[in-house]
């Protein structure tokens, strides 16, 4: 090979090496489509991270963020911002870098571009092109194309599905009363990131009820407010979907028994027509629509079976409840408590027959006058067990007071001081 050919080969090798570096390295100066930003600088960091520095158009204010690679990618990076939103940098486009700003649910709020100086005249064209991203949701590790298209939506099935292998012939938007209804919430990020909707027992908290508008905020929530799923495993918390049952078909239901009782009780009281039912992730005191879905429930037939289901789940729930454990045992005091609450109930016109008392305070508590500090008496709490005239059994919390007589002495008798909440349980469990 002569010297001229050797020189040409060397120059070509250097040229292609330079081109390869230019296509793989993001380091350099860029011009942004963002208003108020003069320039941006990207610097490669160890571990395939990158640092982006923005220089404001006015003054020399600088903002710097370090971005983490997504799935070890060399082109896609993300940074979680202090307000809970996300900034996503994507170098996949050939002529520019895509910058997306996502909300907490990973929906794109803004789309911008970075261009090098030689592409500056095309910046506006690239910016317009990227506006198709606005409103889209970017999911991390979507299980399928269906998942990608239904991000943060709840979809319903007639049988328990396996996500990633769903039998879409079982997916339904309309059910008949008495049929099992399974829900799949397809999420934009792992379930553990939705901590707002996971309680201390690792149960998903959700609301279900009738509505006139599935996309609106108004709904008549069944059971008062919050429903709960079965406990979610640590492994399930890492997945970007969750499967849970919302309507049982039999006592073999795979759901929280109190939730099953609440839902079947609400269903049996629906009118004999079709109803739009909404299910959404729920948290006490808020009215978010972050993750939701809706289906139609036809109640025009089979309401008799619905009432049987409601009765069966009520019995199962009550049979699962137990009396509280005593914190103090004193047979004479327990008898005085029963006599005091029965006396109070009779005077108040109650129809409850109290049969026993369980002392739930470990000791007496002194009651003082808030103004003078003088001792008024001593107080104790008890769960009073009884049966109501409608046949329901349970217990109710009360506090009782013995009046102070001076010199550290208290009256022999006692009276009801305050009334607490009532807990229904199975009648077989109050003996």
Record keyword descriptors for this entry.
431 residues, Lipocalin
Task: State the helical fraction.
Answer: 10-25%
Q: Could you say how many structural domains there are in total?
A: 3
Give the H and E element order: HEEEEEEEEHHEEEEEEHEHEEHHEEEEEE
pLDDT < 50 runs, ≥5 residues: 7-23
Task: Draw up the topology in text.
Blueprint: H1 3-24, E1 28-32, E2 37-44, E3 50-56, E4 62-69, E5 76-80, E6 86-90, E7 97-102, E8 108-115, H2 123-129, H3 145-149, E9 153-157, E10 174-176, E11 181-186, E12 203-210, E13 220-221, E14 227-231, H4 234-237, E15 241-247, H5 257-268, E16 274-281, E17 292-298, H6 303-320, H7 331-348, E18 353-359, E19 365-368, E20 375-387, E21 393-406, E22 409-410, E23 415-425
Parallel strand pairs: 10-17
Antiparallel strand pairs: 1-2, 1-8, 2-3, 3-4, 4-5, 5-6, 6-7, 7-8, 9-11, 11-15, 12-13, 12-14, 12-16, 16-17, 18-20, 19-20, 20-21, 21-22, 21-23
Helix pairs in contact: 5-6
Plain-language structure description:
The protein is of the alpha+beta class and 431 residues long. It folds into three domains: 22-137, Lipocalin; 146-320, no CATH class; 331-424. 20% of the residues lie in helices and 36% in strands. The chain has seven helices and 23 strands. The strands form four sheets. An eight-stranded antiparallel β-barrel has the order 1-2-3-4-5-6-7-8. Strands 10, 12, 13, 14, 16 and 17 form a six-stranded mixed β-sheet that branches. Strands 18, 19, 20, 21, 22 and 23 form a six-stranded antiparallel β-sheet that branches. Strand 2 and strand 3 form a beta hairpin. Helix 5 runs antiparallel to helix 6. The radius of gyration is 33 Å and the shape is elongated.
């Amino acid at each position: 090979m002569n010297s001229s050919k050797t020189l040409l080969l060397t120059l070509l090798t250097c040229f292609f090496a330079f081109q390869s570096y230019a296509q793989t390295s993001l380091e350099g100066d860029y011009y942004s489509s963002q208003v108020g930003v003069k320039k941006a600088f990207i610097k490669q960091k160890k571990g395939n991270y990158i640092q982006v520095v923005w220089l404001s158009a006015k003054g020399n204010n600088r903002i710097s963020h370090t971005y983490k690679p997504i799935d070890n990618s060399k082109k896609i990076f993300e940074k979680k911002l202090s307000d809970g939103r996300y900034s996503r940098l994507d170098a996949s486009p050939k002529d520019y870098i895509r910058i997306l700003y996502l909300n907490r649910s990973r929906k794109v709020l803004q789309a911008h571009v970075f261009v090098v100086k030689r592409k500056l005249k095309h910046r506006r064209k690239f910016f317009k092109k990227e506006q198709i991203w606005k409103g889209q949701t970017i999911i991390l590790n979507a299980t399928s194309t269906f998942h990608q298209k239904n991000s943060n939506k709840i979809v319903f099935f007639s049988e328990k599905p396996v996500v990633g292998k769903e039998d879409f012939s079982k997916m339904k938007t309309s059910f008949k009363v008495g049929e099992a209804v399974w829900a799949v919430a397809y999420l934009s990020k792992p379930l553990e990131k939705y901590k707002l909707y996971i309680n201390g027992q690792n149960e998903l908290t959700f609301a279900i009820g009738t509505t006139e508008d599935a996309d609106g905020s108004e709904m008549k929530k069944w059971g008062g407010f919050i429903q709960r799923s079965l406990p979610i495993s640590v492994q399930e918390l890492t997945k970007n979907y969750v499967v849970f049952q919302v309507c049982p078909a039999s006592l073999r239901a795979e759901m929280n028994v109190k939730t099953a009782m609440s839902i079947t009780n609400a269903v049996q009281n629906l009118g004999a027509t079709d109803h739009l039912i909404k299910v959404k992730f729920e948290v006490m005191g808020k009215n978010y629509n972050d993750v939701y879905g809706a289906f139609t429930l036809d109640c025009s037939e089979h309401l008799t079976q619905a009432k049987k289901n409601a009765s069966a789940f009520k019995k199962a729930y009550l049979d699962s409840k137990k009396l509280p454990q005593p914190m103090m045992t004193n047979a004479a005091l327990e008898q005085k408590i029963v006599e005091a609450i029965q006396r109070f109930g009779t005077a108040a016109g109650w129809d409850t027959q109290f049969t026993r008392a369980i002392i739930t305070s470990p000791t007496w508590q002194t009651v003082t006058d808030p103004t003078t500090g003088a001792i008024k008496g001593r107080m104790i709490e008890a769960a009073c067990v009884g049966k109501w005239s409608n046949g329901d059994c349970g217990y109710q919390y009360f506090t009782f007071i013995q009046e102070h007589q001076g010199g550290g002495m208290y009256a022999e008798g006692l009276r009801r001081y305050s009334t607490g909440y009532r807990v229904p349980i199975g009648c077989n469990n109050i003996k």
